[in-house]
Amino acid sequence: MTDTRNPVEDLAGDYDIFDPGYVTDPVPAWAELRGRCPIAHTERWGGSWLPTRYDDVQALAKMVPELSSANPGPIVVDVPEELRRPEREGYNGASPISADPPEQTWTRRALLPHFTPRAIAPQREFTKVLCNELIDGLIENGGCDGAVDYAQQIPPRVIAHKLGVSGDMVDDFIEWVRGVLELGLTRPELRVKYGDIIRDFFAAEVIDRRQNPRDDLITALCQTEVDGELLPDEVVIGMCNLQLVAGIDTTWSSIGSALWHFSTHEDDRRRMADADDDLWDTAIEELLRFYSPVTMARTVMEPVEIGGVCLGVGDKVLMNFPGANHDPEVFDYPDTVILDRQRNRHIAFGAGIHRCAGSNLARMEMEVSLRTWFERIPEFTLTDPGAVTWAGGQVRGPRTLPLAFG
Ligand code: HEM
To answer: Which range marks the domain in which residue 306 is found?
Structure first.
């Protein structure tokens, strides 16, 4: 791992995705790079390439098998040899996101039926009740931390509900997922520790569901057959793990970024307080575009020439979906939030074979949580801009967001 934490002097050859300025607002860096070095390189954090043009990110997302998503595919630091578990060889902890075809194809196919609009209908009602309960608990205080007290509370409960796991696990889920995706990004020992905790938790749940089937996602996955065979336990455990790591920080970050936006852009906030269904539809897509939270990684398996650079075997490529969504070649006024933007082909949910399997659930959670908030708390502002903190790296979003109501 190379990271000297020296100041970045030349973005094109030395960008740092953990630079505090980049984490807080990466838009200026992308604009600069797009103009002079659209696929930049750094040696920091194990070395990587960073594409910033929409067309390049789209093209890279479709390069299979030249680029691989298989383990270990974290965006920064690989797990060192001494921390790897020989007994876990062959356990793919997050299929299909961390798999290539053919495994990616059949695991994805097994998941998709559980995320259709119809399949997530029970979670819509659940989310509505949940958001109202959360607001009941904080509205009298005249303010709250919009990231911690509201946004963060929603996705883990919705995922627990879908999996069929007790809501009492929510604080653990938050700690585990942050351990893997936030703190663990630069500290592989934490990633391994929390990865093991999640794995052991779901291993016990799977044993339970095999004996006591219920009406929940874990049971449904336990009963799924591929080519006439039930999915093995290890595969079900990995797919359950993926529900946490793909479904919690991502959606929490999107809801938090939206609250940050409206608390700092009064005209847009006023507009949403009276919004009709059409405006809500376009606004959700625009917030997803502008504040896209997720950056993934791929490993180069065959040399690739693209955008004037040559990616070599073993190189890491950051799938900069957020940067692509600010490309002026594709979006008019890309660095402005236009709530009724009509043409919006954003790739916040990725592109190609790994495109987000949970996008219906994510959109529903964003819509219900924000609409419920606006119904109950149409007037709110950021109290202390200096107190806002952002997480960056694989999933970007606010982690502290002090708001006042009224
Ligand atoms: C706003 C919230 C979300 C965003 C922005 C988001 C974004 C993404 C992105 C960019 C990918 C592509 C990964 C890649 O190319 O390597 C992805 C994949 C995936 N997401 Fe999401 N996601 C969100 C919420 C969710 C939720 C709520 C779930 C389900 C619980 C979910 C489940 C998945 C799965 C299973 C994949 C892997 C699909 C595959 O590899 O075939 N996501 N997501």
So the answer is: 11-405
Q: Residues with Cβ within 6 A of ligand 1?
A: 69, 96-97, 104, 108, 111, 159, 242-243, 246-247, 250-251, 254, 293-294, 296, 319, 321, 348-350, 354, 356-358, 361-362
Low-confidence ranges of the chain (pLDDT < 70): 1-5, 71-92
pLDDT recorded at residue 87: 55
Q: Quick check: is 6 in a domain? A: no
Question: In this structure, is residue 4 part of a structural domain?
Answer: no
Ligand 1 mean position, distance from CA 75 (Å): 15
Per-residue buried b or exposed e for 130-143, using 16+ beta carbons within 10 Å of the residue's own CB: bbeebbeebeeeeb
- Cα–Cα distance between 334 and 325 in angstroms, integer? 7
What's residue 332's pLDDT?
98
Q: Atom of ligand 1 at shortest distance to CA of 69?
A: 16
Model-level pTM?
0.95
CATH number at residue 171: 1.10.630.10
Give the model's pLDDT for residue 93: 77
Both tokens assigned to 77:
């630091």
pLDDT recorded at residue 73: 57
What total number of domains does the chain contain? 1
Q: What is the number of the ligand 1 atom nearest to the C-alpha of 355?
A: 12
For atom 19 of ligand 1, the residue with the nearest CA is: 356
Q: Residue 51: left (phi > 0), alpha (psi -120 to 50), or beta?
A: beta
